[in-house]
Design brief:
Layout lengths: L1 H15 L3 H23 L6 E5 L1 H4 L8 E8 L5 H15 L4 E4 L3 E7 L2 E9 L14 H9 L4 H16 L14 H11 L2 H10 L4 E3 L13 E3 L15 H16 L16 H11 L2 E8 L5 H21 L4 E8 L2 E8 L7 E8 L3 H12 L12 E6 L2 E7 L5 H5 L11 H9 L2 E4 L7 H12 L4
Parallel strand pairs: 2-5, 6-7
Antiparallel strand pairs: 1-2, 3-4, 4-5, 8-10, 8-14, 9-10, 11-13, 12-13
């Protein structure tokens, strides 16, 4: 098994290691960008250094990747507004066809020489504990790992990154909530290679904690905790979800049991069409519903936490109303879909409502009086039955506010749940509710997502 594992890893390593031509092209582009950036800085009334960061700076980038990260490091005497202004001025001078994006502060993203380039302003702080913006840590990360990852370990890191990408957990964006490049490099360094990393991960019992510099100055309630070697108060793995950790464990065991290159390649399913979606839910005998609206104009790292909050709010309300959510998901492209598969699409006209025990006099009398004058079975509805005794409690059977999930989702009550602010604003503008066979219409935009939903895997 060891020989088979090593043979698979070697094949992957050969594929993900940049060749001499690619390295030379990268070097030329980085040199050009540095010079252009220095020229742009020279036109400003302040001094600033140009720092290459990220995987290309640490020689842990994968063959075919086209990402270059350059930071312009300003003195801490520069104000925040000036930092942002100078950063954008430099960015547009270096990347004239670039566009502005926003993380903690704006920066310029563009292309140069066939590479994707991020040009980001930061502060030249004394150490990572003195940061004034989150990006100020990044140069310290590069410095720390550059001193510890040699060419052999860099090859192990590349294999680990390709494996994590293949199983769908590589990336610290809030859409993926997986393993960042920096976290991956720290873990491979911690274990001394790719194989010991996956062997250890296969045996993890979360929560799992590492403190490479033995200097933690805070505690964390996360499934994976890796104390930043440059900042004792930060968990590098804070964004990594419990599901991402579990997926790594599952596929680490799978790889060790049956080494094969396929695990290093993302397995995207073929998209399903309208009819396939309708037929699948018909076979399952469930009731799919979806709320669909135009995606808010915000970056993914702002959008996905709001989708998580909104989906949880809708699922909680559907469950409380008795529609029993089997599974739910949120997807976003041009439109957003909050999707729920229900065990029950329609409920009876009345619902049971239990009061307090009769022996609790004040509360019991208050409950009884509140319903005693309700009319049972009027001509236009089911009315209220009771109060009556069931054991030692008063009980009423009262009209249900929403008999169908669609009725609930189409009502103003949907805005009473905990929605993300931008999601609520988008839905307030316009949204549609799809149910039954009509959810098949989602396949046009979300055919791959629905294919994954209907054939779930670890």
């Amino acid at each position: 098994m060891s020989d088979e594992f090593d043979a698979v890893v070697e094949r992957v390593r050969e594929r993900v290691t940049p060749d001499d031509d690619e390295r030379e092209r990268l070097g030329r582009v980085v040199d050009d960008l540095r010079e252009r950036t220095r020229d742009a800085v020279a036109d400003l009334p302040v001094d600033a250094d140009v720092v290459q960061v990220g995987s290309t700076a640490r020689d842990t980038w994968l063959a075919g990747d086209r990402d270059i990260d350059l930071f312009v490091s300003f003195p801490t005497s520069v104000g925040r507004d000036e930092l942002e202004s100078y950063g954008l001025e430099i960015g547009h001078a270096v990347l004239p066809d670039g566009h502005e994006e926003f993380a903690e502060h704006p920066y310029v993203k563009g292309t140069y020489g066939g590479f994707d380039v991020d040009l980001v302003p930061c502060y030249a702080v004394a150490d990572a504990t003195a940061i004034r913006s989150a990006v100020d840590r990044t140069p310290f990360h590069t410095e720390y790992l550059a001193e510890r990852i040699d060419a052999d370990l860099a090859g192990e890191v590349r294999v680990a990154k390709r494996f994590l990408a293949g199983i769908g957990v590589y990336g610290s964006d809030l859409r993926t909530r997986g393993f960042s490049g920096y976290l991956t490099e720290l873990l491979v360094h911690e274990y001394g290679g790719f194989r010991p990393f996956v062997e250890a991960a296969a045996e993890w019992h979360p929560p799992v904690a590492f403190d490479p510099e033995d200097h933690a100055d805070a505690s964390f309630d996360d499934p994976l905790v890796v104390i930043d070697p440059t900042d004792p108060e930060r968990n590098v793995a804070a964004v990594c979800s419990a599901e991402a950790v579990a997926r790594l464990q599952h596929y680490a065991r799978d790889l060790l049991a049956e080494p094969r290159p396929a695990l290093f390649v993302p397995d995207d399913p073929e998209p399903v069409d309208h009819d396939a979606v309708a037929a699948a839910f018909e076979r399952r005998g469930t009731a799919p519903v979806a709320v669909r609206f135009d995606a808010p104009d915000i970056v993914d790292d702002q959008l996905y936490p709001q989708l998580d909050r909104s989906l949880a709010g809708l699922v909680g309300e559907l469950d409380r109303r008795g529609f029993d959510v089997l599974r739910a998901a949120a997807w976003a492209e041009e439109t957003v879909v909050l999707f729920a598969e229900l065990e029950v699409a329609e409920r009876p006209a009345v619902e049971r409502h239990e009061g307090p025990p009769v022996g609790v006099r004040d509360h019991a009398e208050g409950f009884y009086d509140a319903y005693a004058d309700e009319v049972a079975a009027p001509d236009d509805g089911p009315g209220t039955y009771g109060p009556f005794l069931d054991g030692d409690r008063y009980v009423v059977e009262r009209p249900r506010e929403f008999r169908t999930a669609v009725g609930l989702l189409e009502s103003d009550a949907v805005f009473d749940v905990a929605l993300g602010a931008r999601v609520e604003a988008a839905m307030d503008e316009e949204y549609a509710v799809l149910s039954g066979d009509d959810v098949g219409a989602l396949a046009g935009e979300f055919g791959v997502e629905l294919a994954r939903y209907l054939d779930p895997r670890p």
